[in-house]
Design a protein that fits this description.
Length: 308
């Protein structure tokens, strides 16, 4: 049985024993399936298990924690999309917000239910602490994001502080849980958490840049969301060009019919002339190298690389 089958089987068992109605179970399964298509098959569970395996842990021991992480991440995604009022094509955005919040809460409780099945109390306590701290940081990051979006401009340092708490925190949590359940030393747990943090920041940079000019389906630019390209341009443009940039954003927010070919061309030129693509690529590569460096300092991961 491969990892996908292990994860899917464990989730099926968890839902079957949950006492939830057939309708709720059906919706949760469909949302998990959709999330799988978007991010890869059980991405957070796979990451948790991969880290456990890399430190010589037993996958079956980590499975409950991996399921908890997968469900936790899905609940976080749902709540994030509702609060940000975007990603309207996702299934949880096609139902009333109250219903989506209710189901996200249900999925979050299921996450802790999966976690409660860990056999060793010390593991349950340690992983619970990781999830709790991860949740607090994500909430703090989300609040910081709301605050940032209400400001005329923020620094690049403020941007990275926010995404480290949100996107970085989730992947860091998955890696830390995998390392804890893999039974490795605290020093290596910390290093793998650092790896996960950098991995999450990399993913957010990639998403920010991909969504920035995707005006037809994403509203980041139109709503003046403080994504990396937006923040970068606010910090490098001169005063006159900043006002032009903000005016284009306001125009896009009024509707796509107000944002024609001329405005799109004007925005593209600003992005190109100020080296936005280059900057985002450089920052992506920087965090990639930091992630690699974190792994290079862990001897048993390097030993496994040599055997491959």
């Amino acid at each position: 049985m491969n990892l996908d089958q292990l994860v899917a089987g464990e989730i099926t068992l968890l839902l079957a024993e949950s006492g939830l109605s057939v309708d709720v179970v059906t919706i949760i399964n469909s949302w998990l399936d959709y999330n799988t298509g978007e991010k890869g098959r059980f991405a957070f569970a796979q990451l948790t298990l991969a880290i456990c395996d890399s430190v010589g842990g037993v996958l079956e021991v980590a499975l409950k924690g991996a399921i908890a992480m997968e469900l936790y991440a899905l609940a976080a995604d749902i709540l994030d999309d509702i609060q940000d009022q975007d990603n309207h094509d996702l299934p949880w955005r096609k139902v009333p917000s109250a219903q989506a919040i209710n189901l996200a809460t249900c999925i979050l409780v299921l996450s802790y239910t999966a976690l409660s099945r860990l056999l060793e109390h010390s593991q349950f306590e340690n992983v619970s602490n990781v999830l709790n701290q991860m949740g607090l940081q994500a909430c703090d990051g989300q609040f910081q994001e709301f605050t940032n979006d209400s400001k005329e401009s923020i620094t690049l340092e403020e941007y990275f502080s926010t995404i480290m708490k949100k996107s970085g925190g989730l992947t860091a949590g998955a890696c830390k849980i995998g390392a804890i359940l893999g039974g490795t030393h605290q020093t290596f747990i910390n290093q793998l958490e650092h790896f996960g943090m950098n991995l999450g920041v990399m993913n957010q940079i990639k998403n920010d840049f991909a969504d920035f000019l995707n005006i037809d389906t994403k509203n980041d630019f139109a709503r003046g969301r403080k994504t990396l390209p937006f923040v970068y341009l606010l910090n490098v443009l001169d005063e006159e060009d900043v006002e032009t940039f903000k005016a284009l954003s306001s125009m896009a927010n009024k509707g796509l019919d107000m944002f024609g070919l001329q405005e799109r061309d004007q925005l593209s030129k600003i992005v190109m002339n100020e080296g936005t693509t280059h900057y985002c690529c450089v920052m992506y590569e920087l965090y990639k190298q930091r992630a690699i460096a974190a792994l290079d300092n862990i001897p048993f991961i390097n030993n496994r690389k040599e055997k491959c």
